[in-house]
Design a protein that fits this description.
This protein is α/β, with parallel strands linked by helices and 156 residues long. The protein is built from 5 helices and 6 strands, in the order βαβαβαβαββα. The strands form 2 sheets. A 4-stranded parallel β-sheet has the order 2-1-3-4, sandwiched between helices. Strand 5 and strand 6 form a beta hairpin. Helix 1 crosses helix 5 and helix 2 packs parallel to helix 3.
Length: 156
């Protein structure tokens, strides 16, 4: 088989300026996601001085804040972390859908890699599992996805 050119992102965060947007709602879960994202980035070469943590009320506000950060051109990537836990009303669906749709739009409009680490779970136990216990830490996953995408984009 003939050789095909392959473009892959190296997991090297050195020199990248990254904004981490974190909701305060469910902060006992979100703080673990923030910790995972920071740990993943610094283990891959990011300097803590190049990381900016932006605290916001909840997941619904995330797209607007991410849009402002992206438009500032000060960051090479954005990692968004939050936790939307289903309750007894349809509120969960509206918040989760608008957050995901809005963040995707920001990433596309501004051409900035955006790690999506917003948990959408049916209950607290599932959120805990995804914030550092059984199911890993989705803050780590979001940071790594952003990092790899940033490095792929730099080659395109």
């Amino acid at each position: 088989m003939a050789h095909i050119k392959t473009i892959e992102g190296q997991l090297d965060a050195k020199g990248l300026k990254v904004a981490i947007v974190a909701s305060r709602f469910n902060d006992f879960i979100v703080d673990r996601l923030v910790g995972g994202a920071v740990d993943a980035l610094t283990r891959h070469g990011a300097s803590r001085e190049d990381l900016t943590l932006v605290r916001i009320p909840g997941a619904f506000e995330m797209p607007l804040v991410a849009q402002k950060l992206a438009a500032s051109k000060k960051f090479d990537g954005i990692v968004c972390v939050g936790a939307v836990i289903r309750g007894a009303t349809p509120h969960f669906d509206f918040v989760a859908n608008e957050c995901a749709k809005g963040l995707a739009q920001v990433s596309m409009e501004h051409g900035i890699p955006l790690g999506f680490g917003v948990l959408t779970t049916d209950n607290l136990e599932q959120a805990i599992e995804r914030a550092g216990s059984k199911a890993g830490n989705k803050g780590v996953d979001a940071a790594m996805a952003m990092l790899e995408t940033a490095r792929v984009l730099a080659q395109l």
